[in-house]
Inverse folding.
């Protein structure tokens, strides 16, 4: 397996180092494409890609007929949060108090769901799927309605293998197991590798249903400090691996949930090698990887020489969540995973796999994804702009290159849990930062979903801004009027 | 919850006791419907149902214009097999040698699949399903393609609750959790109740993928001697419960896999009460319950006063296996099961649930099942007749009142494992008895599926018969010619 896209990463790293060192300052003009191409011995297209990426990360800006210039740098702190060393011991999991309430509220569907981790239903290709379902059932009923045991539909696995090429994955259909969504893939990976009492390391913050799944499996966790810029602290990870018996690592390296960062290629490579040397498998969640606004970042799996990376993904974020078609690249654990998959529920629905395979094969997927990516980028920008407009000054917002979330830090220690409770009363549901750790962290953070953008959502953001302002002015006991929306 | 059908069970038990005691002998005439109705203070229809059932079990036969007469009694031994008492200790599971080979052969699809546990694809209502899939996707795309977390589709749960009335289950939609098939329901039940190292008791023989699932979950098992006539030995169960810490019992009381028996109502009630007194939950697999040739037998769940019976089922055997719509009635474990279901794979495919709900609601299901039951009864009879015709004399075959299997005992200690190996060479796959226990039992038994019946299947049965004859004549090392079929 090779990493096709490391070259432009090298270019963009170079520029970023120059900016970080102060060699390039706000307003400075970057070397031209030709200069940079000659200097770094890469093609002009490579430099273009690198600059495009830097532009997208808001490090630089393009001025037509003039060139590229350094912008004011991103607002959110790039350093790893300081961490209490005792929190680097394996911890048994108890869920934060807000967790149960959050799940219950989710069920009663508040009006504005800024906590939902999928794109707007308007984007789901329902018409095509409808036809494909009909035709599969009518013309291939035996295939559509029989048991189809692991690894699942050959045709679909062929399509996924082909699709893998776009992110540098050189895989065969035999490397793939179809699952009932990404969550099931992660569950199977954990069941295969870990036993109750084992320790798993992961990024912090990390999305809450993973924490709950690990709790269910009676696993311990160590949360590793993670930068919203480039991901986990490898130094801390090394320290933890030196001092504890770790059974697996879990990571979302591309368009991370919740922080939105993409781990740079050099770091992915280092991470895979570090874990491989210690014999620690990496469970990689790549579910957001295809929601890229620029080039498709490669998964860690491309650097996996030993079959120790178990990549988990699905079409839930790209086609539709209810399609329930996910997959795993289980590496050397293929036999165990196939067997376990068969034992827990025998088979996924074959017709759903046939529909997904046809959507990929007949070209619908690529065209659909072009539209989805554009739209999601527009929505993230609108959401960010709106937060920066309505929230108190000093609010920090991440700038993801893809995915479905922004991660927000409130200024002046404003309490996001309190904001959450007031928001729910107003019919607005978002994910407060507290949910994303077992360590009583992220009380000033929240995650907002950019999957839907419309006037109602904008009004909700404005209302959250007003709630923040009131909290800041000490009027925290004010009666919160129900938000007038729609 | 009440057991509507206990009355005719009382009548049929009475008759069977008279037969067993020798008070009624082969050729004797039974009391008339009216006499019996007066004597037992039940309606004539109740007696009719009881006699119908006894007729179906081949205990009696109806002679037009004359009455009911006692037949020659069923061939298969009704006594519990003698058991080595040390085999009633909790046992760690290691799979018999034939297991892996059996699964591998299954994947390479031999020509005649007498091991397959579903009805013939010709019976799947593909046209209707096709239309329902299309319309759900087209007219309710948001519902069809969103996440639908546990307990799953309200509409479907309403239909299942209504359906439950036909077998005496008085349940509400809130008592139901939708799962990805019955196997997932069983998996969730075991994960909820048991921890690694715990002991589960069950009928013996028991279907092999359950054994494999328990092995995966690191559970120990105790196999309880079971009669092909009326199920588990309650005396042995009581002995085991007195002497070991048992965490759960697993049972298939209706049209058992593989033996085909239906546990009588009095025994179901006793079993539920016995387990309830000891605080041992019962995981009940009722997946074959609707494939009844006569009245629908009630599940043990109807006798569950404490919420300690977890009923697992699905539409895999009635509508189509690939629909992947199953369910559980988790009793008092509802919260845990719902949570675990959400954690392992978030959601089943909602569109499949919508399609199943519509198939039940618009009346298709009942009509479909009438046809399926009739056909399956014809097929079981054809299969039995064929086995009795082609297999060596002395072969014993069960006579199920429903379901998909016959369980066969070969005469003179003929080795079913050897028959299995020779059959596979001839392109015929069935399930040898060895698979159905961890105790090196049932070497002279096999399970045949009655899901499909046609000329090719009949030729296969004839070929199995010839193989038996050759084995009996000591020509076991003969080269087996590939069966010419089709």
């Amino acid at each position: 397996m090779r990493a096709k896209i490391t070259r432009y990463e090298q270019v963009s790293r170079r520029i970023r180092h120059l900016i970080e060192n102060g060699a390039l300052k706000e307003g400075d003009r970057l070397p031209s494409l030709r200069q940079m191409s000659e200097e770094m011995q890469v093609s002009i297209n490579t430099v273009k890609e690198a600059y495009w990426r830097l532009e997208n990360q808001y490090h630089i800006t393009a001025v037509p007929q003039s060139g590229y210039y350094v912008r004011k740098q991103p607002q959110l702190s790039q350093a790893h949060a300081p961490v209490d060393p005792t929190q680097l011991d394996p911890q048994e999991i108890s869920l934060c108090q807000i967790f149960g309430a959050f799940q219950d509220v989710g069920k009663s569907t508040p009006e504005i769901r800024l906590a939902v981790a999928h794109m707007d239903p308007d984007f789901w290709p329902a018409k095509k799927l409808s036809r494909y379902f009909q035709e599969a059932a009518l013309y291939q009923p035996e295939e559509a309605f029989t048991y189809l045991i692991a690894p699942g539909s050959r045709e679909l696995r062929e399509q996924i293998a082909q699709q893998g090429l776009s992110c540098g994955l050189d895989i065969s259909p035999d490397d793939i197991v179809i699952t009932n969504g990404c969550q099931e893939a992660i569950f199977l990976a954990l069941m295969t590798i870990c036993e109750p009492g084992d320790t798993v390391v992961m990024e912090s913050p990390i999305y809450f249903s993973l924490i709950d799944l690990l709790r269910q499996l009676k696993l311990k966790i160590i949360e590793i400090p993670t930068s919203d810029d480039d991901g986990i602290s490898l130094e801390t990870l090394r320290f933890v691996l030196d001092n504890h018996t770790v059974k697996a690592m879990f990571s979302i390296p591309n368009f991370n949930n919740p922080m939105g960062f993409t781990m740079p290629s050099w770091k992915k490579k280092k991470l895979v090698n570090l874990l491989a040397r210690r014999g620690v498998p990496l469970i990689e969640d790549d579910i957001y990887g295809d929601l890229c606004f620029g080039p498709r970042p490669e998964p860690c799996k491309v650097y996996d020489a030993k079959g120790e990376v178990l990549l988990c993904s699905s079409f839930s974020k790209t086609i539709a969540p209810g399609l329930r078609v996910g997959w795993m690249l289980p590496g050397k654990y293929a036999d165990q995973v196939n067997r376990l998959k068969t034992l827990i529920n025998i088979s996924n629905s074959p017709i759903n796999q046939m529909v997904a395979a046809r959507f990929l094969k007949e070209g619908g997927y690529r065209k659909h994804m072009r539209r989805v990516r554009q739209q999601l980028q527009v929505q993230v920008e609108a959401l960010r702009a709106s937060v920066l407009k309505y929230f108190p000054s000093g609010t920090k917002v991440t700038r993801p290159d893809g995915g479905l979330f922004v991660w927000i830090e409130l200024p002046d220690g404003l309490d996001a849990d309190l904001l959450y409770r007031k928001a729910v009363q107003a019919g607005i549901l978002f994910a407060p930062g507290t949910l994303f750790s077992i360590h009583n962290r992220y009380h000033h953070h929240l995650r907002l979903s950019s999957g839907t953008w419309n006037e109602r959502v904008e009004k909700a953001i404005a209302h959250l801004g007003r709630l923040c302002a009131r909290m800041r002015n000490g009027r925290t006991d004010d009666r919160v009027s129900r938000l007038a929306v729609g």
